[in-house]
Amino acid sequence: MTDTFTALVLRETDDGPVGALEQLTDADLPDGDVTVAVDYSSLNYKDGMALTGAARIVRSYPMVPGIDLTGTVIASESPDFAVGDAVISTGFAVGERYWGGYTERQRVRSEWLVKRPSDMTALTAMAIGTAGLTAMLCVLAIEDAGVEPSDGPVVVTGAAGGVGSIAVAVLSGLGYEVTAVTGRPETHEYLAGLGASAFLSREEMTEQARPLDKETWAAAVDTVGSSMLAKVLSQMKYGGTVAACGLAGGPDLPTTVMPFILRAVRLQGVESVTTPIATRTVAWDRLGRDLAQDLLASMTEVVPMSELIDRGPSILAGQVRGRWVVDPAV
Prior knowledge:
Quinone Oxidoreductase, Chain A, domain 1; single chain; Rossmann fold
């Protein structure tokens, strides 16, 4: 193990945060009881905000961004993790308040970690990442509500993004009939390959919603919020469930109580930042079983950490299809 390693470090300037690759040592790492040799990280929406300074998501500087990481334990003071264990870290404000995954080495708190499933590679884990974990938590919410494939079609908004892509793939693999909503017609072939059987445009799903529209969906995964979520709610079947996990379209919700009190619709919030470790473990195990590896590979691109400063704004502009896995070694 070399004394120095490479990390992407954001430093605050008068013109906003500026990121650069720097050489660090273990003495530079934050407090924690587990040190990890990082194999991969990933690029998520929050990472794009951190890299560009949007919404001041980073709480203090200097900061090593990257809300996801996976790798191998190289030092541990925790009884729960031993040297050689393969681990995953997502959420818990890592990459926002605490140093994250855009580095070859990181020190973290053991309570943030889960053991990587034994049959899951590091590349697979970060192709899934926070986006995939969130998607699976949405699927679990739909299942917990008792919605089955025979109850009718489901809809996924923001379908070409990371959460949406994995939700489409998992739901279709479980036998659900999936309609994908996307503002990019050029992604229809890609989404069909993941299992989507029908498509709706962003424009038609952001039209002003009626209090109640035609009953269409047994369940939904919404990554967009705002007027699109309102539209989805108005179209839910009686007893349907919407798993809402994003606000790419805005934090407002211009709807009425009608879907809830006349159709018994359930709006279930889903978040992955502080999800308990026991629930995370279930979700990661399910992802290992229910997400087809060939579909995951088809939505994944590996990018070098050295290109992140230039690539970061792409995800905020909705230009990323599927998942970008970050290789810190290049």
